[in-house]
C-alpha cells in the first residue's frame, strides 16, 4: 500500500513538473509524499478576484484508493475563502473529498474542482454552522462526516 | 520501472497512473485497470473508480490478451541502470534478465564461508581472489582453503626440510626421525639432569665428552643418591601429612582448653599462679571480694566480717591457709550461735501463737546467717566440698528447726484445746440462760394475744431467732479470757 501511494504520487509529481499545473494553481511545496502545498486563485470574473489561497494536501498510505485530506491553510499569511462550503478553519465541505472520491481523481483534479467551486460562488458567506463546527472540528477534515446538501459541489 | 518510450495513454491504469500490470477488465463497464489496483479499490468501495457504477470482485476478469501483450512488450530500462546496466528489454523479460543476465545484480560468493556480495560481472574476478577459494597444495596435492595455505606450507609433509646442523635435505615427514639420528644435531650431555652443562653435536658425545665428563664418572653415585632422595621425599610427604594432622588436633585441643577456661572462669589458674598465692587469679568482674585478697601483707579490717572470723596477722606463707579458714570457718560457729538464738527466742515465738516466724525475729537473726564469700583462691574441688559441707549444715539446722517447731506446735494446740473446752462450757451456760429468758418472754406475748402489733394469728417464730444462729461461739481473739 505504501509503495502504491508513493509510486502514484511520484507519477503525479513528475506529471506536474513536466506538464505544469492547471491555470491559477501553483505547486508551492512537495518535499515528501505526505504533505503538499498549492496556491490557488480564481482567474476571471468572480467574487474572489485578486485573492490567493493556500491549499494543503495530506496523503496517507491508502491514497489514491481513499481521498487525500484537503483544506485551506489558515494562519497569519493566508485565510480560507469566505464560501458557504468552506469553514473559517479551512475545512471544505465537498463530496469529492469524501464519499464521492474516486481513485481516478488526482491532486490536480481536486485543485481544479475547488477552483470551479469558488468561481461559481454567488454570495460570500460562511456555512451556517460555522462557529459550532470550528469549535469542535478535528484537526484532520477527513475525520469529519460532512452532510453534502448541495449537489452542485 | 522506466519505459523507454512514453506508453500509449490507453495502456495507463488510472489508479496507479502506470501501464497496466496484469490488466483486469470489469465485465460490467469494460473499464480496465491493473489487477492489484482495482482489487484494492473495489475492496475499499464497491464501484468502478471511473464511472461509479457498482462493481464487485466477481465482476473482474483478465483483460483482452491483446492488452496484456501490448503492456508486456513495452520496452523498459533495466532497474539496475544506476549501477551500470544499460540494457533495455521487453517488460515481460524483466525477471529473466535480473535472474540470469543482468551483470549488475549482486549475488553472494559461492564459497560458503565468504559473505561478500559481488556484482555478477565480477564473480570470475572474485573467484580468483576470494580468500576462501579452494586450492591444491603443490607438494602433497591436498585440497585446502586459500586462507589456510600459509599454515599448511609449514606442516605439509611433502615439502622438503633442511637440517640446520648437517644441511642434509629430506622430506618434512622425516624431520623428527632425522633429529634423533643426525650426528651433527646439538644435544645435551646424558648427565644434564645431574648438572653437566655441556652441549654439542651428537657425534662428540660418545666419542669425546663421555670420556671427560666428570658427572659421567660418578654415574653410580647419582643413581644411588637419587634413589635415596626419592625415598626421603616419600617419607617427608608422609611426615608432613602427620604434622598436618597433629597441628589440626592441637588446634582442636586449644579450642577445647579455651572453652574450659571460659567455663571455669575465676577457678581457672595456671600452674605457676597456683604456686605463688601472693598473686592469685582474681577476675576483675568479682569486685566484691577483692578486699580479701588485695592486701597480702596483712588482713584487711573488713575481712573479719563475721564474728567467728579470727583475726590473724598472717604473713605471705600463711595466707593460703588463712584463706581456707576464711572461706570455711563461718559455717560452723555461726550454725551453733544461730541454734542458740533460736532456742533463746522460743518463748517469744510461743507468745506469737503461730509457727510463722516473727518478722522481727528473722530480722534479728539475718546478720548471723552465714553467707559464705566465694573463695576464688581455693581449688574448684575445695570450693565444691566447702559448699557441700555448708549445705549439709544448713539441712541439719533446718531439721532441728522443724523438730522444734513440731514440739512448739503440739504444745500450742494442747493449750488451745483446753481453752476451747472451757469456752464451750461457758457458751452452753449462756445459751441455757438465754433460752429460759426467751421462753418467759414468749409466754408473756402469747398471754396478751389480742395485742399483737401486726395482728398476726399468734405465731411466735418472728421473734424467735433460730437456734442454729446462736450455736457458734462468739468469735474471740485467742487468749482472751472469758
Ligand atoms: Zn467502469
Ligand atoms: Zn494500476
Ligand atoms: Zn540489467
Ligand atoms: Zn568470496
Ligand atoms: Zn601440502
Ligand atoms: Zn642433520
Ligand atoms: Zn657431560
Automatic annotation (TrEMBL), chain A:
InterPro entries: Ub_conjugating_enzyme, UBC, UBQ-conjugating_enzyme/RWD. This is UBC-like protein. PROSITE patterns: UBC_2. Residues 4-153 form the UBC core domain. It comes from Suillus placidus. It comes from the Eukaryota. Coiled coil: none annotated. Keywords: Ubl conjugation pathway.
TrEMBL record, chain B:
Residues 294-314 have a biased composition (Low complexity). It comes from the Eukaryota. Signal peptide: none annotated. Residues 96-174 form the TRAF-type domain. Residues 13-52 form the RING-type domain. Residues 292-317 are annotated as: Disordered. InterPro entries: Znf_RING (IPR001841), Znf_RING/FYVE/PHD (IPR013083), Znf_RING_CS (IPR017907), Znf_TRAF (IPR001293). Pfam families: zf-TRAF. The keyword Zinc applies. GO terms for molecular function: zinc ion binding. Keywords: Metal-binding, Zinc, Zinc-finger. A zinc finger (TRAF-type) spans 96-174. The keyword Zinc applies. This is Uncharacterized protein.
